[in-house]
């Protein structure tokens, strides 16, 4: 593997995450895949290893110094966890998706109230944006928040929310002025247990089965005005800035899934004997593995470069974050499909790990904005960049 010149702290984070993945998650991964239960023991192990601190500021119990964001740190953790089990990795990562809005837009009181418990891993967070009619079109949100004295009354439903029902703290985007479209959205912090806030059934999914995906249901749910993130009408900005900073994490997840698939495929190819010799001696297999390894390294380079750029303070990173998510998830789908092919008939059997990796890889092309939407983001950014250039 390429030497990425990690700092001593970054190498420690990577090593600790790998140890948790190999010693805690790997032995129970198949069990949770089969039962589809939420892997609390693995999440608690992440908390005990201080992995939830890596992207939270030091002032609130985290490890991130003032002036940085910890995006690269979180990518290192997500990659290592995803190498073993993407479902448990996304349960970890989705908490970051829920608490980044508090880091970016929360006032001091909100940060002091919520971030320390999230850094300790005592509580998980989640992010409520998607609805039945508002997926790629976030401007189509129908969940409403109506002012009522010192409160807002929330009514509506959020769909396919990772960590739904398991998390304690939710960042929820609702419309406070529907006539303004996306400019009429507002972000709220909603706590589990708030009257009028409930959850739908746990969804049965193709992949990432050990993660929890549920509806968030709001029925006359009263939210105090001090729980508004940023200011009224800023919800769409909250959502887009959050996604710009978390999409490299999807790239890291994809890289981890693909790396695990490559590890499986190489080890299998070295042991599987056909025509009197291991199949890795066949040029056709060598070329498949070579392409897989090269694609993974290219994707990892993109993840690390963009994550480091974000942490360094680069402001406009929408295009680059979209590129990471697009390139890495497409890569993971290709690599895991090829890994199944290397295994042949065994790869199609649930007894072997690569079929799970292939199913898990698919979601990386879909959530946090489909890859078709990422191409839109990139294309629009290119048009804007070149509009002002002379040729």
Give structural notes.
Strand 2 and strand 3 form a beta hairpin. This protein is globular. It has helices at 8-25, 29-35, 40-48, 71-84, 86-105, 108-120, 235-271, 283-311, 318-343, 354-364, 371-387; strands spanning 125-128, 144-148, 151-162, 169-175, 185-191, 197-199, 213-224, 228-229, 273-274, 277-278. It contains eleven helices and ten strands. The chain has three domains: 8-124, Butyryl-Coa Dehydrogenase, subunit A, domain 1 (Orthogonal Bundle), CATH 1.10.540.10; 127-233, Beta Barrel (Butyryl-CoA Dehydrogenase, subunit A, domain 2), CATH 2.40.110; 236-386, Butyryl-CoA Dehydrogenase, subunit A, domain 3. The protein has a four-stranded mixed sheet with strand order 1-4-5-8. Strands 2-3-7-6 form a four-stranded antiparallel sheet, with helices on one face. The chain has a two-stranded antiparallel ribbon with strand order 9-10. By secondary structure, it is α+β, with helices and mostly antiparallel strands.
């Amino acid at each position: 593997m390429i030497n990425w010149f990690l700092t001593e702290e970054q190498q420690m984070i990577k090593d600790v995450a790998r140890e948790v993945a190999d010693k805690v998650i790997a032995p129970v991964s198949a069990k949770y895949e089969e039962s589809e239960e939420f892997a609390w023991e693995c999440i608690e192990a992440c908390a005990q290893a201080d992995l939830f601190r890596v992207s939270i500021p030091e002032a609130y119990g985290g490890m991130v110094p003032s002036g940085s964001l910890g995006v690269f740190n979180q990518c290192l953790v997500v990659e290592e966890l995803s190498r073993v089990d993407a479902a448990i990795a996304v349960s970890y990562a989705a908490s970051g998706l829920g608490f980044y809005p508090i880091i970016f837009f929360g006032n001091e009181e909100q940060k002091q109230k919520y971030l320390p418990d999230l850094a300790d891993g005592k509580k998980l967070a989640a992010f409520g944006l998607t609805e039945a009619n508002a997926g790629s079109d976030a401007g189509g949100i129908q969940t409403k928040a109506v002012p009522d004295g010192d409160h807002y009354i929330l009514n509506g439903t959020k769909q396919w929310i990772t960590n739904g029902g398991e998390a304690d703290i939710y960042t929820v985007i609702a419309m406070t002025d529907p006539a303004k479209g996306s400019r009429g959205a507002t972000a709220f912090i909603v706590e589990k247990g708030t009257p009028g806030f409930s959850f739908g059934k746990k969804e049965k999914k193709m992949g990432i089965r050990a993660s929890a995906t549920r509806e968030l249901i709001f029925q006359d749910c009263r939210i105090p005005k001090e729980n508004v993130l940023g200011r009224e009408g800023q919800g769409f900005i909250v959502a887009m800035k959050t996604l710009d900073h978390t999409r490299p994490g999807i790239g890291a997840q994809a890289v981890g899934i693909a790396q695990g698939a490559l590890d499986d495929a190489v080890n299998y190819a070295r042991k599987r004997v056909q025509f009197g010799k291991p199949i890795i001696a066949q040029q056709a297999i060598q070329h498949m593995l070579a392409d897989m390894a090269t694609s993974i390294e290219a994707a990892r380079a993109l993840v690390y470069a963009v994550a480091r750029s974000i942490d360094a303070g680069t402001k406009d990173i929408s295009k680059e974050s979209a590129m990471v998510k697009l390139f890495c998830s497409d890569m993971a789908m290709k690599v895991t499909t090829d890994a199944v092919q290397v295994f042949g008939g065994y790869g199609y059997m649930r007894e072997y790990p690569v079929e799970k990796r292939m199913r898990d890889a698919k979601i990386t092309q879909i959530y946090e904005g489909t890859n078709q939407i990422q191409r839109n983001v990139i294309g629009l950014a290119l048009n804007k960049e070149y509009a002002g250039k002379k040729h």
